[in-house]
Amino acid sequence: MSIGIFDSGIGGLTVFREIAREFPLTDIYYFGDTARVPYGNKSRETVIRYSTEAANYLKGFGIEALIIACNTASSYAGELLKSQMDIPVIGVIEPGVEMALRYTENGKVGVIGTQATVRSNAYRKLLEKSGIQVFQKPCPLFVPLVEEGMVEGEIPRLVVKQYLQELVDSGIDTLILGCTHYPLLKDTIKQLYPHLKIVDSSQAIADFLHREGLRFTGEGKRRIFITDESESFEKFKKMLVGNIPLEKVELSEICTL
Ligand code: DGL
């Protein structure tokens, strides 16, 4: 079986790594829209268009399941892609919520993400259905920190504290990292707030796939496509998934406008 994964850029590689580790024989096609990142500050219409183009591109490889490894795209385009595509489409929201429900003991859950993800209230709506009290906060400086590789040390510690202290003071015991870039800041978050249970989309998705009993067999093929060359992508790709070559896709090949 083959699987397609897309994100606006590097963040989804955290999902790629986890899936490659958990399902070694699955053929994986990754699409990172590095020419148009970030999605997190774009309008709903734009995020839907970019997500549809990414999904259609991957569909061309005959993928049998699609993972939306971007919270922004999952929040805005998840339902639409699920209804339009004739293969299973898995976003990050439901797996993240399921994991948070298993983790929380006091029913107070924090959600952090891009402006767009927080504005969409996608996590809040699902969590509140289960009676959870939700505390949300957009953390717009996290993505550039990660893109710059600044994930440890004084500066990320200060930024993390600036955003998260308020949520922690509200008494949350579980924190959903509602952006696929954020797992790279997980160590810093854990050092500052060791009592928090952290939901990382990449583990939540791998768990979800196991529980759904989807059987992925193939030749373990790995291909990574990007829409623009990017130094930080290359660096993170090496760190997260090793020496898989990057393949450039022209936007003109995927754009529908
Ligand atoms: N990886 C994206 C997400 O999970 C965030 C980066 C962006 O704004 O495109 O929402």
Could you walk me through the main structural features you see in this protein, from its secondary elements to its overall organization?
The chain is an alpha/beta fold. It has two domains: 2-91 and 205-254, Rossmann fold (3-Layer(aba) Sandwich), CATH 3.40.50; 93-201, Rossmann fold (3-Layer(aba) Sandwich). Helices cover 47% and strands 18% of the residues. The protein is built from twelve helices and ten strands. The chain has helices spanning 13-22, 44-59, 71-84, 93-103, 115-120, 122-129, 142-147, 154-169, 186-192, 201-212, 231-241, 251-254, and strands at residues 2-7, 27-32, 65-68, 89-90, 108-113, 133-138, 174-178, 197-200, 222-226, 246-248. The strands form two sheets. Strands 4-3-1-2-9-10 form a six-stranded parallel β-sheet, sandwiched between helices. A four-stranded parallel β-sheet has the order 6-5-7-8, with helices on both faces. α1 (13-22) runs parallel beside α11. The longest helix is centred in the N-terminal third of the chain and has 16 residues, at 44-59. It is globular and about 45 Å long. D-glutamic acid is lined by residues 7-8, 11, 37-40, 70-72, 114, 117, 143, 179-181.
